[in-house]
Specification:
The chain has 218 residues and is of the alpha/beta class. The protein has two domains: 117 residues, HUPs (Rossmann fold, 3-Layer(aba) Sandwich), CATH 3.40.50; 89 residues, putative n-type atp pyrophosphatase, domain 2 (Alpha-Beta Complex). A five-stranded parallel β-sheet has the order 3-2-1-4-5, with helices on both faces. One of its GO terms (molecular function) is diphthine-ammonia ligase activity.
Amino acid sequence: MNNVPFLCSWSGGKDSCYALHMAAAQGLKPVVLLNVLNEYGDRSRSHGIPKEILQAQAKALELPIHFFESTWSDYERLYIENLIALTQRYSLKASVFGDIDIESHRAWEEKVSNAANLNAVLPIWQQPRKKLVLDMITYGIEAIIVSCNHTLGPDFLGRTVDKTLIKDLEALGVDACGENGEYHTLVTNAPLFKKRVKVTITDKEESSNYNFARLELL
């Protein structure tokens, strides 16, 4: 598996970041990040992270990042189209994803990867969720919560993913890893980052079932 060129499905959060690091540690070679923006092209579709902050992460990793805009209804079709184009441009052999144990997610990732003749790689698949978060912290991934559900509430926005946070999550009956969508994160530093990504929270917003931090790059 040495030097196999791969694309990383990049949310900007801890799971995709750790998956990229683990794939690289296994000898695969990261060559491009892929992120899906909302239909307005200003934030990521999944985590609500501003485009310029995702670009700063890519710069810190010294990797190109490819964006495309999509509604949820067009997501799969456009994802496959962009995967095929990137496979040709970068001579990709694999696609790396940060999912842990939701079978429907893995099935979708294998489906879209197969459409582009890529091998879907899930380096953190089926690792115990709490141990996985603790391993990320020990490894040196620094991340903050940038969106969360109402069980957690707006006070959790901006909190660092650390051992204290895990205890607080468990006290509320929330999965330590947030794999069920309880919260999403932004990585500000990691072993492969050449420099820290500095952000500030300028405001907090609430939708029908979720809280979002309005982020600004420093």
